Amino acid sequence: MLNLRSFVREYYNLTDAKTKYVNKLHKALRLVFPGYIKVFASLTGKTSLLILKTFKTPDNILAAPKGEVISLIALTSRKGLKYANEKYSKLIESAKLSKSFGHYLESVFELIQMHIEFIEIFSSKIDSILTSIKEYTLKFEKHTFIKQIHLLDSIKGIGFIRPLCFNRVGGN
Q: Does the predicted TM-score (pTM) go above 0.85?
């Protein structure tokens, strides 16, 4: 069970680190592109991050062909053209507002790109560690402790990681 404890601790370390970079991204966007935060439901969702990575600044969004931006939103969100058009309108509006309310600081736009890279790296590593945890629990599925984890995991709303913490794995 020490292996499982190590995995769970690393999962929480990575999650905490990712949260720090999400907060840094949020803070940077509030400074240079304040309206962007309200455009997408999740600042770190696929569509939001891809828009930020592809266009980088409000000026680039305003200069981009409408069809290109709408296409990107429609493809990554998989919610259709109506949704993409609505998001495009909000995105353009927020980009225009950033000229009045935001500060154009090139260094902050570069930091935003770095924050996004870290968020994506942490997300990938978190997914990897979750896979390792699941593989480990399958490998030892006959163990009483693992059976308890799967039983708790079967309860709606509990999730997979929480049972590991409820039991003695998450201890000191």
A: no
